[in-house]
Amino acid sequence: MHFHSNIRLLRRRKNKTQDDLATLLNMKRSTLSGYENQVAEPGINVLMQFARYFNMAVDTLIRVDLSKLSESQLYQLEHGDDVFLKGGNLRILASTVSDDNEENIELVSTKARAGYTNGFSDPEYISELPVFRLPFLSSEKKYRTFQLNGDSMLPIPDKAFVTGEYVLDWNHISTGEACVILTLDDGIVFKIVENRIEKDGLFTLYSLNPTYEPFDVKVTDIREIWKFVHFISQELPEPVLPENELVKAVTGLQQDMQQVKKRIFGGKGRRSREQDVSSG
């Protein structure tokens, strides 16, 4: 945890003494000194108090070693461009490489899902995940594969393996793209996204299965986003339908897609608490 060194660094960059900052935060100077010297641990209310003052997310104050950032990165943080608040492009990813120094594709199965929610930033945890390579994917990009659990993204079936490309800057995600998203409350979800970062600081997430309602997720509640690349499934496709049944099926699919588009571009839905965490 980098909290103690970070608040000392940020205080000095604001040209504040311990007495100055303690007064502003309505605490004793000795208490602040204890935090900076790592002889006292702050509670959640204190963490939020520092986060509000420095205009940074609690995650940033705890997880990111600010002393290793460039001056331009620190300037952006101090002026409100916090990755955990705005979905910007400063993000630390735990990853693995092969013996020939090529990026692996780590596999997060349904069994590993719960552990991933807490261990996604832990290099030791990530190193224990199964890995593989797909030669047709770019060696210049980072990929990870997640196993779905549920039917909210049909026709992509339950237990399918979805591979995503790691997204650094969430502002560049286009509305209508499919993404695997790691959230604080819902764990790993696979959804179609509506990007509302600039206006509202959040994403609205939609299922392909129309029985599930869309819901909003604030960027402060998101930890990772992986843009959909492809999926692998053990299920066989549906058999070829006779012509008249095929026409009916296509018509139904077109109607379903129109409903999804209408929900993305024309309306806001209420959140549905879905039980299948991996795919919604």
When the domains are counted, the total is 2
* Relative strand content: 15-25%
The stretches of 5 or more residues where confidence is low (pLDDT under 50) are: 269-280
Rg: 22 Å
Sheet bearing the most strands, described?
Answer: 9 strands, mixed
Please state the average pLDDT score. 83
Structure annotation, total helices:
11
Gross morphology is elongated
| CATH fold-level topology of the largest domain | Umud Fragment, subunit A
CATH top level of the largest domain is: Mainly Beta
CATH superfamily of the largest domain: Umud Fragment, subunit A
Main sheet: strand order: 2-1-3-4-9-5-6-7-8
Explain how this protein is built.
By secondary structure, this protein is an alpha+beta fold. It folds into 2 domains: 83 residues, Orthogonal Bundle (434 Repressor (Amino-terminal Domain)), CATH 1.10.260; 146 residues, Ribbon (Umud Fragment, subunit A), CATH 2.10.109. It is built from 11 helices and 9 strands. A 9-stranded mixed beta sheet has the order 2-1-3-4-9-5-6-7-8. Helix 2 crosses helix 3. The radius of gyration is 22 Å and the shape is elongated. The C terminus is likely disordered.
